[in-house]
From TrEMBL:
Taxonomic classification: Bacteria, Bacillati, Bacillota, Bacilli, Bacillales
Domain of life according to the entry: Bacteria
GO MF, one example: ATP binding
Alphabetized UniProt keyword annotations: ATP-binding, Nucleotide-binding, Transport
SUPFAM superfamilies assigned to the protein according to its UniProt record, in alphabetical order: P-loop containing nucleoside triphosphate hydrolases
SMART domains noted in UniProt: AAA
Stored PROSITE patterns: ABC_TRANSPORTER_1, ABC_TRANSPORTER_2
Family: Belongs to the ABC transporter superfamily.
Residue ranges constituting the ABC transporter domain according to the UniProt record: 18-265
Official protein name in the record: Peptide ABC transporter ATP-binding protein
PANTHER family linked: D,D-DIPEPTIDE TRANSPORT ATP-BINDING PROTEIN DDPF-RELATED, TRANSPORT ATP-BINDING PROTEIN
């Protein structure tokens, strides 16, 4: 057994919020984009995924979010296999998942106020009262105000439209929306890639604080190796749809890393990392 297989086998998957095994997918008429992918994510844990463009990171995220079908393998969310689930069961499971993507402008309907956008997911769960509002007001506006407070935006933003917010503020709104239904697990697919460096750091810190406060598990996808190192407990490297290696984050800079991982580090340090591996 190689180190990689031994490390994967050490993961305790008994209470994992997400478990993927043997996941394989090809787009219609195209080549295989995911090949025998396996991973698990425990409660309160962050798994970082890195790999060059086109290596299948976002496709994997979409499969885990049940937004894309896959051809082979198994996906378990909160211990339950999604295979053969009824629509109502899938809807309930989906409400336990959150997602934050690269472009907040694309994620927010320009014609809706921040109040309307924020409450879209909760509106779909008709009788659900989030625990953070238990014993408090059941007014929608109060719930939305509380969500904005959690991402450090003032209540006055509720009546604004997305074009009146900066990129970082819009991303805070999408984060507030992602946590509104109290998911256990959130996919963060390049959540800071469209933001300037200072805003990137504040958003990453916010995501870390929310993870601690709410006990969230994350799947964090990024080309920014410093950000992945900062956010993640474990790191998985993907190449051409397969998992190349998988290690605790402390081992990112070890000399026995796969040559491909070392080449990612080299490219990153040349373009983005002049002195220190961690910017935050
Ligand atoms: N809807 C689609 N139809 C067909 N092929 C697709 C589709 N979406 C992605 N692909 C292909 O699947 C492969 C993996 O794409 P994916 O977006 O998952 O990679 P990625 O690692 O997330 O890339 P990036 O870092 O650039 O976001 C690529 O070859 C891409 O062209």
């Amino acid at each position: 057994m190689n180190n990689q297989a031994a490390y994967a086998q050490q993961q305790d998957t008994s209470n994992a919020v997400v478990t993927v095994s043997g996941l394989t997918k090809a787009y219609a008429g195209g080549k295989t984009v995911l090949q025998d992918v396996a991973l698990s994510i425990s409660p309160r844990e962050c798994l970082g995924i890195v790999g060059e463009s086109g290596s299948g990171k976002s496709t994997l995220a979409r499969c885990i979010l049940t937004l894309d079908p896959f051809d082979q393998g198994e996906l378990r969310l909160d211990g339950q296999s999604i295979r053969g689930l009824k629509r109502s069961e899938l809807k309930r499971i989906r409400s336990r998942l959150g997602a934050v993507f690269q472009h907040p402008s694309a994620a927010l309907n320009p014609r809706l106020t921040i109040l309307q956008s924020l409450l879209e997911p909760l509106d779909q769960l008709k009788y659900y009262v989030p625990s953070f509002m238990a014993g408090k007001s059941s007014e929608r506006r109060d719930t939305a105000e509380h969500l904005l407070e959690m991402v450090k935006l003032p209540a006055s933003y509720l009546d604004k439209f997305p074009h009146q917010l900066s990129g970082g503020e819009k991303q805070r709104v999408t984060i507030a929306r992602a946590i509104s239904t109290e998911p256990d697990f959130i996919v963060l697919d390049e959540p800071t890639a469209s933001l300037d460096v200072t805003t990137q750091a504040t958003i990453l810190n916010l995501l870390k604080d929310l993870q601690d406060e709410l006990g969230l598990a994350y799947l964090f996808i990024s080309h920014d190796l410093a950000a992945v190192h900062f956010m993640s407990d474990r790191i998985m490297v993907m190449k051409e749809g397969s998992v190349l290696e998988h290690f605790p984050k402390e081992a990112l800079f070890h000399s026995d890393r796969h040559p491909y991982t070392q080449s990612l580090l080299e490219v990153f340090s040349t373009c983005c990392l002049p002195t220190e591996p961690i910017l935050l």
